[in-house]
């Protein structure tokens, strides 16, 4: 049992913050997200290591997603993710303040554009680019086929590029008028 708890402790250190950010986006509530992630790791501790090893990250995302959807389905609508919470979860100490401000502004524009995407596109983009999951892992988490995951990502990126380009055009026009 000791080896299993060490394995879970290692996975906790590697994935807790990313799972918390992901689950927070689904639930819209940080405390509820913490409960969901805690429950996922408790389930992992009780699971047979041989059945989870080799795909533990995918398993954890799947358990967190399913549990988060279960607990929020009737109580809360799916809410957009607060970029400030993500910044706090992923913040690295130090760095260039001006560069950080520019990155925060760009991130805000991206988050605003992401919020306008359909839920399925937004979710797969977050899993792919925010959490680094492969198409196969995203397929296992969301229960979409791998081909559909690719389609959602492709169309989501295309929609984001279009929206962000329109934002640049509006900014250039506004600067030209000033």
Summarize the structure.
The protein is mainly α. It has 9 helices and no strands.
Characteristic key phrases:
178 residues; single chain; 0% strand; disordered C terminus; 9 helices; 2 domains; Arc Repressor Mutant, subunit A; mainly alpha
Total number of β-strand segments?
Answer: 0
CATH first level of the largest domain: which class?
Mainly Alpha
Q: Quick one: CATH superfamily of the largest domain?
A: Winged helix-like DNA-binding domain superfamily/Winged helix DNA-binding domain
Uncertain ranges = 77-81, 171-178
What is the average per-residue confidence, as pLDDT, rounded to a whole number?
80
Shape, per Cα inertia axes: globular
Order of helices and strands: HHHHHHHHH
Q: What kind of sheet is the major sheet?
A: none
Radius of gyration: 18 Å
Could you tell me how far the N terminus lies from the C terminus, measured between alpha carbons in angstroms? Answer: 68 Å
Q: Can you walk through the features of this model?
A:
- α1 packs across α4, α6 (97-115) packs across α9 and α8 packs across α9.
- This protein is 80% helix and 0% strand.
- It is globular.
- By secondary structure, the chain is mostly helical.
- It starts with a helix and ends with a helix.
